[in-house]
Amino acid sequence: MKTRSTFASEAASNKSRARHLLLVATAAALTLCSSSAFAGWARGGTAYTGRGEYQGAHVGSCGGGSCSHAGGVENPWGRVATNSGTVTRTSPGQFSNSGTAYGPNDRSVQHAGDTSCAGGSCTHDGSATGPNGKTATGSDTVTRTAPGQYSSTGSVTGPNGNTSTHSASTNCAGYTCNRSGTVNTANGGTVNHSGSATSVAPGVVVTSGTATTTSGSHSTTVVGGATVTSGTTVVTGSTTVVAAPVIVPPPPPPSSTVVIAPPPPPSTVVIAPPPPVKTVVVAPPPPPVKTVYIAPPPPPVKTVYVVPRRAIWIPGHYVGAVWIPAHWA
């Protein structure tokens, strides 16, 4: 039965072996590439996260229009993942790349692609083939929209034909770069992510970020952050340099390979009851106003005073040959 000290001893031994392998790979890469036209670099660093320290080293060299790189990362449990590859300039603004990545379980992924840059924009088309022989393809475009500002869009199609799309934007000013983006998964889910990276001292970068996954009516937010320290050694001519056993976080997978973690178990969502409906009583409209026509008053009555005259008795008489009897007049 293994004791705690045995486990600690094994872990220390594994770390020592991993670091030794990284040092050997660094020395070999730089020694093989040493020539009058050789220019190389070695970089290492440590990422401090909530899960522990990740250490890694990365070396590279360029010559004859081609650059090769190799590196590895060791997790807090002593397991190592490596990645190596080559990028070749085929013509002005045109590049091709290929390489292999090995995980801690020794499974490998072969990746290759082509990149074309012109007018402040670069487009990359690539593929990745897993250990089971299945292939995923991807396409991405990155455009410089203004000094320090970039936007990107792309898509990834898995071996089963399902396609996910993504878009993002980055804004850099001073010592800080901020980014935000959205991933639309093939199953209809959405991942909104944002974060920042700030250089607080030479070789020290502090990162933070959040990612919110939405699937149907459920959403989950993950908040993370890390402090990364690194150092870089540039080598020219035929000098051989052995990099210090320090680690950087594992490089991101090639743009043609996107691994989307399965959505977390649905969280319980409590929906508050709707507020009571307010009853609104609308008063009936007032009755229509009756129009009353008022006739103008009659003109004033003029009073006519008739002066009575006196009656005169006229006795009977002839008018010509006609007899007129007596009468009043």
UniProtKB/TrEMBL annotation:
Compositionally biased residues, Polar residues: 84-100, 124-168
Classification via InterPro entries: Pectin_lyase_fold/virulence
Record keywords: Plasmid, Signal
Signal peptide: 1-39
Region (Disordered): 84-168
Domain of life: Bacteria
Protein name as catalogued: Large exoproteins involved in heme utilization or adhesion
